[in-house]
Amino acid sequence: MITASIIPSSKKEAICLLDKALSKGDLAELRVDLISDLNILEIGNLFDKKRVIITNRKKDEGGLFEGNESDRLHPLIDAMKLGFGFIDIEHSSIDSLKLLISKKRTLKSETKIILSYHNFQNTPLDMKEIVLQMKDQDVDLIKVVTYANDISDNLIIKDILFLFNDNPRLISFLMGERGEISRVLCNSWGSFTTYAPLKGLDMTAPGQIPLEVLRDIYRVNSIDETFDIYGLIGNPVKESIGYYVHNKLFSYYKMDAVYLNLLVDDLGKFMKVFEDYFKGFCVTMPFKETIIPYLGNIDQMALKIGAVNTIKKNKNELLGTNTDSLGAVYSIEKISTIKDKKVLILGAGGAGKAIAFGVASKLGKIIISNRDHTKAIELAKKLGAETIPWGDRDRVDFDILVNATKIGMSPEEDSCPMKDSFFERDLSGITVFDAVYSPIDTRLLTLSKKQGAKIASGLDMYIGQAMAQFEFWTGITPSYKEMERFSKEAILLRGDKAEN
Ligand SMILES: NC(=O)c1ccc[n+]([C@@H]2O[C@H](COP(=O)([O-])OP(=O)(O)OC[C@H]3O[C@@H](n4cnc5c(N)ncnc54)[C@H](OP(=O)(O)O)[C@@H]3O)[C@@H](O)[C@H]2O)c1
Q1: Do 483 and 411 reside in the same domain of the chain?
Q2: Cβ distance 444 to 417 under 8 Å?
């Protein structure tokens, strides 16, 4: 169940937002903190009030209500009189709680009281004691929401839901980006509901995921303990589009699986506490190399590149591979063969290495140029390739140009890895591939196309490597058409332009 949480600032806005919240969520939490012209009766008459939680959050609990305690309790008491589904009162307001419990008895109200605890700093180690104290009160539901400072805090919440979720039922998840996975998984761990804001509206707590994303991309209402769990290990992970693409693929192929963003600070600690929990991972910066000692086995390509971007669990062993090289080859070969072609690769970082080994596997003749020339030499040695100093990159002939640097990447989309003079030439017969996919139409690709070059974008590399990841995990080769659709949708959602 997903609860849409809204904080309107007037009665008119409350009516408009509650309509949306109830049409999209299973329940709606109406935060009345800011509504000075509140009319609970009118709201109760207009909506299915059994599905509404009335909350009037005070400042020291992260809310916005500024009046006295008696005024704060008014709407809650009215909501009980009118038979709203739920009211929320904080664990720190013990006198108010007692008053509400006694009112509920006198009114013989069926409104359920949610006793809530918030901690915006951390997830205390004595969480169990706090929950036990809360369970001593005569309430219907207990809500415990704390801040995640480390991804392992999610397991504290999972434990609490497992241990104490009898009577009264618990609602529990974490705030902050490191707690995001609890917002997706808490229902499958036993939470009565998870909370979310509506898309496009202000967040009501840090780390929230929009309701539409929880419902339609993560499929929160379907996830149960039988689901296979995959995730992206990295730092940062926010910009990745994988959460969208892989979850859409799982849904398209009707698979009981979910893919999560895992913001990891301490890789060793993460692998120790979470390894058993996951079926597979994607790996991104800065862990592509440091993950290797945690794996039971890695394939030849990943070994050569010295970096892993995909892991699957096979029985009890973690197997690593690198699909970036497959993605790059896939992207270039859509428009040009590689065998015997002269390929100038700009960049010798993670992408540069993976692309170079992919091109070598297809027998391309490689020339590497990197700002830090020592890295170019080091990579070239492993491949038996040539190098060219960074300042001379415009002076060399080639059939295929690959940009594997960060030049041209948002927010510096006006930059270009080739000098202006390069684009004064007729480039017909040349293939230009840019690994950068944010934006998709980089300056390098746009100018090269104008001069007659055939172009291949980083989006195709993304698609190629993600297809290979999905196949590595599931054995299913996903359809290119769906992959392209999901990737473009994801990029649009992220705010980039996906036209190409
Ligand atoms: N399409 C895909 O699926 C895909 C997959 C992976 C990566 N990528 C993209 O590929 C790009 C590189 O990623 P990465 O993982 O290889 O990063 P990385 O390991 O950090 O390497 C960065 C590379 O860019 C070079 N570079 C950075 N700023 C530069 C500048 N101002 N002038 C010249 N060279 C510069 C670095 O040169 P130095 O060594 O001299 O610092 C290095 O070669 C990123 O845009 C990334 O998004 C795309």
Answers
A1: no
A2: yes
Atom 30 (ligand 1): residue with closest C-alpha?
Answer: 407
We report the CATH number of the domain holding residue 338 as: 3.40.50.720
DSSP H helices, 334-370, are: 350-361
The residue from 91, 288, 353, 454 that is catalytic is 288
- Any idea what the CATH number is for the domain that residue 195 is in? 3.20.20.70
CA of 409 to the centre of ligand 1 (A): 9
Query: pLDDT of 380-426, one tens digit each?
Result: 999 999 999 999 999 999 999 999 999 999 889 999 999 999 999 99
DSSP letter string over 139-204? -SEEEEEEE-SSTTHHHHHHHHHHHH-SSSEEEEEEESGGGHHHHHHTTTTT-S-EEEPPTTSPPS
Residue 69, C-beta contacts closer than 8 angstroms, at least 6 positions apart: 58, 93, 95, 96
Q: Percent of the chain beyond pLDDT 70?
A: 98
* pTM of this structure: 0.90
324 in contact with ligand 1, CB cutoff 6 A: yes
Any atom of ligand 1 within 6 Å of the Cβ of 348: yes
